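One chain given next:
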Amino acid sequence: MKRMLFMLAIALTCGAFTSNAQIVVNVRPARPHYERAVAPSPRHVWIDEEWEPRGNTYVFTGGHWAEPPHPGAAWVAGRWSKKGRGEYWKAGHWR
């Protein structure tokens, strides 16, 4: 038992259990209203509406400026997708 707990602690510390959870919801969470801040530089791109799975729902985490990881990179916005009778969030990413 001690060995199993030790191995679990190592796995969690090393990030072996990363969350790629796909939560399907019947009703999308309400999107809060927020004001867009001024861009920190002309290189920055506005990333709008992002949701992160937490528990059995999603939490709004979007609305921020980000600098592309390399020249020519473009932000592909996240979106809601149908799954069965519900929907899930497909996170945005750099292309």
